[in-house]
What we know:
This protein is of the alpha/beta class. It has two domains: 3-110 and 364-483, Aspartate Aminotransferase, domain 1 (Alpha-Beta Complex), CATH 3.90.1150.10; 125-362, Aspartate Aminotransferase, domain 2, CATH 3.40.640. Helices cover 33% and strands 11% of the residues. The protein contains 13 helices and twelve strands. It has helices at residues 21-31, 39-46, 77-87, 137-151, 170-179, 195-202, 223-233, 253-261, 329-342, 348-354, 360-387, 416-424, 463-483, and strands at 99-100, 164-167, 184-190, 206-212, 235-241, 268-272, 305-310, 323-326, 401-405, 428-429, 431-432, 454-458. Strand 5, helix 8 (253-261) and strand 6 form a beta-alpha-beta unit. Helix 5 (170-179) packs across helix 9. It is globular, with a radius of gyration of 22 Å. Residues 1-15, 24-32 and 55-59 have low confidence and may be disordered.
Amino acid sequence: MSAENSSSGSESTPSRTPPSFQDLVRDAMRQHKHEKESEAHQIFRNAAGHKPKGVIPQTVNPDEETVPGIEHPGSTGVIYCSDRAMANGFNYANSHEWANLGQGAPEVGPIPNAPSRPDSIPMPVDSLEYAPTTGVKELREAVAHLYNDTYRKDKASKYTYENVCIVPGGRAGLSRVAAVIGDVYTSYQIPDYTAYDQVLSAFKRLVPVPTALDIKSKYKLDIEQTKKDIRTQGLAVILASNPRNPTGQVIKGHDLKELVSLGREGTTTILDEFYSWYIYPEHESGYGKSISAAKYVEDVNQDSTVIIDGLTKNWRLPGWRVCWVVGPKNLITALSQSGSFLDGGANHPMQLAAIPLLDPARVALEKVALQRHFKAKRDHVLARLHDLGLDVDLPPSSTFYIWLNLAQLPEPLNNGLVFFEELLKFKTIVIPGIFFDINPAHRRNLFNSPCHHFVRLSFGPPIEDLDRGLDAIGLVLKKAKRNGSANFGHGYV
C-alpha cells in the first residue's frame, strides 16, 4: 500500500508483483486438493442451486426439485453469506454485535457536509394507485435532466423522459433488460458483480461468453481484444459493471469512449453504473466528478448503450428500491412490456419522494460529501490491513470494495470460503471471491477458480463496524500464528 493510501503517513512499502490469472490457477492446482475435501466448499455445494450443472449423467436432487420442473437458480453471494451468518447466530435483532463487511450497501445515516437525510414520505391519494411500469413521468424527466446537466451540456442530442424507465431495484433493471434480449452471445468479465451469474443462468437466451481479467493489467478490459471478439465470436451484447464490483477499478476517458462506440457498430453495451459517484480523486479539483457512459453517447436514440443506476448506492438509499434504466426510447418501450409481467413497477410514493433528490444542485453537494467520507474510510481500512500484513495488490480507485488477495496466508486460510467461515466465528461477514467468478454452469472445481484466493471487503458500513470487522480479522490471524493452521477448515455449523 502506498503512503498516499495510509492514514499513518508512513513511507510506501515495496509493492509485490501480483500473480497473473494463470499463476493463480496453477497455484490452486499445485497447493490445494479438490473441493470435495474441503468442509467449507461442501457446505457451499450443498446449498440449493450451487451443485455443478450439466453433469452427465444428469441427476435430480430430490431436496431441490420438490416441485416438478422447478430448478434452484442459486443465491447471490450476499444472500448465501447472510444465510451462513444466520446459521452461526446472526439475526437482525443482534446485527449491532456483528461486523457486516459483506453487504453491498453504503451507510445510510448522515455524513459530514451532505444534505439532510429524507425523514418523511408524502403520500397523496393518487400515489396509492399503481404507477406506470415505465415509472412516474416527473421522475423520468428528473433523471433525464440530471444526465443532460451532468454529462451532455455540449451535446445536441439530449435524453428525455422517453429514454428513462424507472425500475424497483438494479436487479429488476437487469432482469427487464435480459428478458427482452434475443438469442445472442453475451460477453461478461471475471471477476464481476455476483448477480450476473443468476441473470445469465435464468435467462437462457443469453449465451454467456466469459473474459478473464488479469490483475497484471489492473483488471482492465482490453477494448481492442473486445472488438476482435465481436468480429470473430459474434458477440451481440457486452455486460459489465463500471465502476467495477468487486475490484474497485473503473473504465474512463478514452477507454470508456471506445467502449461506448461499440454501440454504434452493432453491439449493445449494458453498463451497471451504480458506483458512478464513488470516484476517489488524488487532488482537490477532482472532488464532485463522476463517471458515466452518457458522456460519450452521440445519439441517445441510435447508440445502443444501456445504463443502469439508481438511488441505491450514490444516494445511499438502498431501502427505497428506486432505480432506472437509461437508453434508446425503443428499448424503454420494450422494458415497459417486460416490467408488466416481471415486477409490475416501482413503488409509487417513493418515486414521487425521489424527484427533489435529483436536483443537480443537491446532487453536487451529495457527491463531494460522499467522496470525501468514503475516501477517508478507504484509506483507514487500507492502513489497518497494512498493519495486519495484508497489503492490497490493487487499492480501489472507485466503489466501496477492497478485493483482498489471501494467497500469502497459510492453508487453508488462503482461500476465500474458509476465511469467510472462520470469520463467522468472530461475528464478521465478508464475501468469498468465488461468488464473483461468474460461472453460470457451476461446473468448475472451485479450487481452480481465479477468484479462489480472494474475499471482497466492503467499507460501506460506518467506521465503527469496519473496525470491529478488522479486529476480527486480526484475531483470526493471531490464532493462526499462535496455534498453526491445523484448527482451521473444519467444525463449521
